[in-house]
Write the structure tokens for this entry.
Amino acid sequence: MSNVLTQLDIEPLKISDIPEAFRPQKNNFNQYLVDGELKTWKGKMVDVYSTIRTENESGEIVPTLLGSVPDMESEPALNALESARKAFDRGKGQWPTMRVRERLNCLKRFADKMKNHRNEVVRLLMWEIGKTLTDSEKEFDRTVDYIYDTIDAYKKLDQKSAKFEKEGGIHAHIRRSPLGVVLCLGPYNYPLNETFCLLIPAVIMGNTAVFKPAKHGVLLITPLLEAFKECFPPGVVNILFGRGRKIAQPIMKTGHVDVLALIGHSSSAVALQDEHPNKNRLRLVLGLEAKNPGVILPDADLDHTIKECISGTLSYNGQRCTALKVLYVHESIIDQFNNKFSEAVDGLKFGLPWEKDVFLTPLPEPNKPQYIKDLIEDATSKGGKVVNKKGGQISVNYTYPAVICPVNDTMNLYHEEQFGPVIPIIPYKDINEPLNAMAASDYGQQVSLFGRDVRKIGPLIDILANLVCRVNLNSACQRGPDVYPFTGRKNSAVSTLSVFDALRSFSIRTFVASKDNPYNNEILESLLNSNESNFVSSDYIL
Ligand code: G3H
């Protein structure tokens, strides 16, 4: 048992010691994509550093310089918005009126080209955001699969629409239509996957987009700009680099954004909505923060539960919106749970993302280790104890996961979404304690329920299903598989994402209606046979 913060030893790292395939390759990228052109940015650039420290020419161990990207100003950002507006052209543009099969072809070409950049993107995921090699590869592959799956899902959706219905003497041809211009902002923890989970369904449905990567995980987008340029008509996808303050805010202020698609913190989402002068025009597709609890019942299989709680709390160092961010453990098993769980946490390997069996890796946000340390100190000053031996050991880019028990509502750790390696444990006597805490929480994404007795679990599921949007039974919380609905209650989300649901979130049902009479029917029939309309079409995409 220790509640003292000590130094976590790290070896000085020379670039030459790193396997060649994983060495960083400096990339000063001064381009951006607007109106189908890769333009050269001549203004200020901003350096991109990795918190993985290496030896520089003077022999000092410093954050590794990976390259630089444009620090763009509001004017080019507004030009990008204009380009997206022009491409949508109030619904008249080539992209929103194009036949679905042609749009799908563009997406397919893009996914095929994207695959050629796997190694570069995976290497940058490791250096920019410290994700392990396995998880970086998974993120890349999952994203490519997501594009192909989205294409298939849209085909199915379109197949269902390739017909006329008749109700109450009115023929109706119902399809899903785009909404307009989408501002797309992704998070740093899944800079490729979560951004593309917004961008791809948005554009496939016929919207046009302006996209800006998050603060970390920026360079890894750069190898894909050329593919975006080659595969989409001008203005459909516009990509900018820089700070939200100079880019996203001025864009929102114009009132010309139809959809704000953001995965990140609700404070950013609210601040951006506040900029928009026409609130009812603005649709929201938001994936926000959460404080998913794990509720461990007295009869839970401990070995299994601990395995799931390790992956739930600490995969990617807890930097997942779906991470288990608080564990409620029944008081009858608390000592046993804490001992086993602490041992498992202390057995996790901290190291560099490409090292074998590494599970814990440097945190990409330079101020995160201090933030985690502050949470630990606040909790321990109010009666919490660090129950694992290595808990809270700190280095310049990491804080070893601290398991803290007992945690209560006087502590910051109870309320804040820690999004990092510290695990609050709350012993409970009565199941109403976690249920009441969940009901009072501002969040409502998912829960993990660990137990065996169906007489206990059954009624609990019925309540939990009304507090969150996914009840994981004896399983860690997670977003995937991507075909399942990903959403949340309260401050955790607005609208639903999944391969299928995202297509709905980025579109609206529109239809052509015509009273059933010989005059109208003749016109409808010749319309269908003529190929004059891409909307009124019985074209069936196989
Ligand atoms: O950051 C939140 C992500 O959506 C979590 O996704 O459960 O696949 O890690 P994941």
User: Anything to note?
Assistant: The CA atoms of residues 12 and 319 lie 25 Å apart. The two ends are 62 Å apart (CA to CA). The pocket of glyceraldehyde-3-phosphate is lined by residues 189-190, 194, 320-322, 478-480 (CB under 6 Å).
